[in-house]
Amino acid sequence: MSLAHDARVPVHPAAGAQRPARTWPELNNPPAWVIAAILLIMPLIANGFFLIEIFATTMILGIMALSLMFLAGYGGMVSLMQLTIAGFSAYMVAVFGVSGNANISLGWPWWLAVPMALALATAFGTLGGALAVRTEGIYTIMITLAIGAAFYYFTNQNWAIFNGHTGINTVATPHFWGVNWRADIPFYYVVLAVAALCYFAVEYLSRAPFGLALQGVRDNPRRMAALGFNVNAHRVAAYAFASFIAALAGVLQVWNYRQISPGSVSVGACIDVLIIAVVGGITRPIGPFIGALIFVLLRTFALDFLVRLGLDGNRFRLLIGLGFLAIVFWSSDGVIGLWQRWRQRQRRDDVRSRGGRRHG
C-alpha cells in the first residue's frame, strides 16, 4: 500500500498532496482581524491592571500551554514539565542577570543573560524529552511530572544557586532606547509580540515537512519508522522546539513579577498548564490562549468573589476543576470543540431552513 493511501500519515506537499486546511484564525477571517485590532489598541481601552494582570498574564500562560499543545496535539506526547522549563529559564535570568540578591546573581546585562537562559532551558527540556520519548502513555506523563517535582524540591532546598524557598527577588528588567520595557504599555506589547511569534511559528511548523512528519509519527510510528523516519529524533526535536517556547514564557514571567521562587514551579502549577491547554483545546494553537484567558479570569475574579463571601479564596480551584470537568465532558477538544460543534449546528440549521424555503 502506498503512503498516500494511509490517511493517518501525512504526505509531503511536493508529492502531490494538498496541505492541511488552514485552522482558525484564517488570514481572510474577519473575526481574526477584529481580535488582532482589539489586542493592538488594548492599551487605549484598558487600565494597567487589566493590561498586565489579565491580558499579559493570559498571553504568558498561553505561551506555556502552547508548548504543551504542540507536543500533545501534533506529537501525541503529554508533558507536565513545560512550566518547569519556563521556571528554569526564569531562574537562569535571575541567576545570570541582575537582582536584589547580589550574592547569587552574576550581574550580566539582560542581552547576555536572556540568551544564556533560553539556551540552558532549551537544553534542559530537550534532555528531559530524550528521557520521556523512551516511554509511552502514562509513563511519559509520570516521567515529566517527576522531573517537575524534582526541580521544585531542588530549588526549594538549594540556597547556593536558587536561594531556597525564598527565591530570587527584585530581578532587573530591560531598559534601553530610553524606554523602561517593564512599564505597563511597553511590556504588554513585548508580551503580545512574543505570543504572536510563538503562535505563528507553531502554525507554520505544523504545515512544514517536520510538522507533517511529526503528525505521522503521532498517528502511526511503526509505519513512519518503516518508511525511514527516525521516530525518536522527531520526538526529541519536538521537545526542543516546545522547550524553547516554554523558555520564552519563563523570561516574560520573571520580568512580569520581577521575582522567581519555588512556588512558581510547584507541581500544582505544572498541572494548571495542562488544564489550561485541555480547556482551550489541544488541536489548535489558539486553544491554549483561550484556556489561559478562562483560567486567569476565574483565578482573578472568582478569588475576589469567594473572599467577599467569607470563604477560603483557594476554593477558586474548585470552580476551575468543575469548569474543567464540564468542558471535557461536553467536548474532548475543549472550548474550540464546543465552538466548532455550535458552528456546525448553525450550518445544518441554515441548510435545513433553505431547503424548507425551496420546498415551500
TrEMBL record:
Instruction: Establish whether keyword Transferase is in the entry.
Output: no
Compartments reported by the entry: Cell membrane
Q: Does the keyword S-adenosyl-L-methionine apply?
A: no
Q: How does it sit in the membrane?
A: Multi-pass membrane protein
Q: Which GO molecular-function terms appear in the entry?
A: branched-chain amino acid transmembrane transporter activity
What stretches pass through the bilayer?
32-56, 68-96, 108-131, 138-155, 187-205, 236-257, 263-282, 289-307, 319-339
Q: Which InterPro entries match?
A: ABC_transp_permease, LivM-like
What are the record's GO terms for cellular component? plasma membrane
The record's keywords, sorted A to Z, are: Cell membrane, Membrane, Transmembrane, Transmembrane helix
Pfam families registered for this protein in UniProt: BPD_transp_2
Protein name as it appears in the record? Amino acid/amide ABC transporter membrane protein 2 (HAAT family)
Q: Output the lineage of the source organism.
A: Bacteria, Pseudomonadati, Pseudomonadota, Alphaproteobacteria, Hyphomicrobiales
